[in-house]
Amino acid sequence: MTATANAGTPAEIIPAKPRSSYVTVLGREMHVSEWGRPDAPPVILWHGLARTGRDFDVLATALSDRYLLIAPDTVGRGLSEWSTKPDEEYCLAFYAETARALLDSLGLSKVDWVGTSMGGSLGIRAAATTLQGRMGRLVINDIGPTFPEAPFERIKAYIDKPPEFATVREMEAYFQTIYQPFGWHSPAQWRHLVETSLRRLPNGRLTTHYDPAIVRQMFAHPRDYEQWEHYDRLVLPTLVLRGVSSDLLLPDIAREMAGRGPKPRIVEIPGCGHAPALNVASQIGLIRDFLAA
Alpha-carbon distance 80 to 65, whole Å? Predict the structure, then answer.
């Protein structure tokens, strides 16, 4: 079943500063951001391919009255360690192992999971393998069990060539162009997105906060995102969000997802493509209601 969410009125939620910690998993140091009470029901928030856990600041702030929100930076992103073995470690199988090791290190026996793009793919993989039986509910944000060829080739062509910028304002203007499909952002949210996404290079210029070698996943594991086999093994309650203009989760893929595997509820998000930013009241409400059901 596919529904369309009400676009609603954009709501400015001022993100709360997370608690920051570092955990060594499988020999790699991972950075973790947390919001909410440590004794509250835990929800893992896992980001997209070239993003960081700080993408969830607004969603986590909004849900922190009821849940413990945990947003890791995947190995090779944000403040987490970069891999010295990119062909082996930049892939869903390794990320799924790090997810299990992370939960073990945090003493979490069972969690709910919200994953955007790659984080949604990882949710599928982990729920069917390393976290089988340990995931209560799954939100897949704008990705399916297969990767259309056009966006796959586009990402493969640019992801290892992160742009450089002289100033934060120059980088912000670039972000407002490439992340326009995310949907609504206020000026303050655009600035926050940039400030949690940048790192400074030895030459003093700015670039994005990820290891360019993450592209090796596309070459060493070219079928990593072909996951119908894993998806069909899922039995947990699942919600799938799809940006109406998304070219990564196509309508026919979403329809097939609705009738297979966990037979999720599919909700289309108006006014955005890949991927909904989960930063406005209507989108946050969908996730809050699903987690509470």
Answer: 27
Pick left, alpha or beta for residue 288 (phi over 0 → left; psi -120 to 50 → alpha; otherwise beta). Answer: alpha
Calculate the dihedral angle through the C-alpha atoms of 115, 190, 13, 65, rounding to the nearest 10 degrees.
30
When mean pLDDT is compared across 26-35, 138-147, 177-186, the lowest value belongs to: 177-186
Please state the rounded mean pLDDT for residues 31-42.
98
* Length of the chain counted residue by residue: 293
CA torsion 190-46-26-111 (nearest 10°) is 140
Domain 2-292 CATH assignment equals 3.40.50.1820: yes
According to the model, what pLDDT value does residue 9 have? Answer: 45
8 Å CB contact between 20 and 31: yes
Could you tell me if 91 and 46 are in contact, meaning their C-beta atoms sit under 8 angstroms apart? no
**Residue 92: how many CB atoms within 10 A of its CB?**
20
Each domain of the chain, given as residue ranges in start order, spans: 2-292
148-198 pLDDT, tens per residue?
999 999 999 999 999 999 999 999 999 999 998 888 788 999 999 999 999
Report d(CA 134, CA 180) in Å as an integer: 35
In the prediction, which pLDDT does 80 show?
98
The structure's pTM equals 0.95
Question: Which runs of E-coded beta strand occur in 142-270?
Answer: 198-200, 206-208, 238-243, 265-269
Q: Could you give the 3-state DSSP secondary structure of residue 32?
A: strand
Distance CA 42, CA 66 (A): 9
Q: Which of 98, 86, 87, 12 is nearest to 53 (CA)?
A: 98
- Rg, the chain, Cα only: 18
Q: In the sheet where 2-4 sits, what is the strand order? A: 2-4, 265-269, 238-243, 135-141, 111-116, 42-46, 68-72, 28-35, 19-25
Assess whether pLDDT exceeds 60 at residue 68: yes
